[in-house]
């Protein structure tokens, strides 16, 4: 059968040879799919400035649909959508101005976490970890901005505060 090339942007595969790959990578559909992928990661300020520079699409205003879709050179955003973007930008700006976690920057809190981790490892090796935990119980030793990432797989979630004391008897294979 031979090797197959899978394009993540276009979500399709084809026989991998120089001619087919070059034809696909230079194709209009691939360029549009790649552009749509990168546009999905734009911030709200970039989207708002781009949409405000465009004129409203007449076809979209009249019928609610446009044959050009995302490649239309006119804006498909309503006043409500633009207001929502403006609110989102203001919210992001307020969050950036407010100090996160009581005045501690994310870089500093990671450094603090590493220093606390080193202290905990030293206490654990000396056997005084249980005494220290009883004196200052913490819900989680992980910085809060690391826990704000949505949909983390279970393998990347921090262990429970009490830890895993008893390992379940599980046979692999």
Structure in words:
With 173 residues, this protein is mostly helical. The protein has helices at residues 18-25, 28-39, 44-53, 58-63, 79-97, 106-126, 129-135, 144-147, and strands spanning 4-7, 12-15. The longest helix is centred in the C-terminal third of the chain and has 21 residues, at 106-126. The protein is flat.
List the helices and strands and how they pair.
Layout: E1 4-7, E2 12-15, H1 18-25, H2 28-39, H3 44-53, H4 58-63, H5 79-97, H6 106-126, H7 129-135, H8 144-147
Antiparallel strand pairs: 1-2
Helix pairs in contact: 3-5
Task: Name the helix and strand elements from N-terminus to C-terminus, one letter apiece.
Answer: EEHHHHHHHH
Mean pLDDT: 79
The structural class is mainly alpha
The portion of residues assigned to helices is 40-55%
- The quaternary structure here is single chain
Q: Please count the beta strands (DSSP E, at least 2 residues each).
A: 2
Give the termini distance in whole angstroms: 31 Å
Unreliable sequence segments = 134-139
Strand content: under 5%
Strand arrangement within the widest β-sheet reads 1-2
Radius of gyration from the CA trace?
A: 26 Å
Tell me the number of helical segments per DSSP (H or I, 4 or more residues long). Answer: 8
So what's the overall shape? flat
Largest sheet: 2 strands, antiparallel
């Amino acid at each position: 059968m031979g090797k197959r090339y899978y394009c993540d942007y276009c979500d399709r595969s084809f026989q991998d040879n120089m001619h087919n790959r070059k034809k696909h990578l230079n194709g209009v559909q691939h360029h549009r799919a790649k552009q749509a992928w990168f546009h999905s990661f734009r911030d709200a300020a970039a989207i708002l400035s781009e949409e405000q520079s465009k004129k409203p699409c007449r076809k979209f205003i009249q019928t609610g649909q446009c044959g050009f879709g995302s490649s239309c050179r006119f804006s498909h955003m309503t006043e409500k959508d633009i207001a929502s973007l403006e609110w989102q930008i203001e919210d992001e700006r307020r969050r950036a101005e407010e100090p996160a976690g009581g005045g501690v920057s994310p870089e500093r809190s990671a450094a603090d976490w590493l220093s606390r981790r080193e202290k905990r490892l030293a206490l654990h090796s000396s056997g005084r970890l249980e005494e220290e935990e009883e004196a200052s119980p913490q819900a989680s030793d992980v910085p809060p901005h690391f826990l704000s990432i949505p949909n983390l797989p279970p393998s990347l979630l921090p262990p429970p505060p009490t830890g895993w004391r008893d390992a379940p008897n599980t046979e692999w294979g």
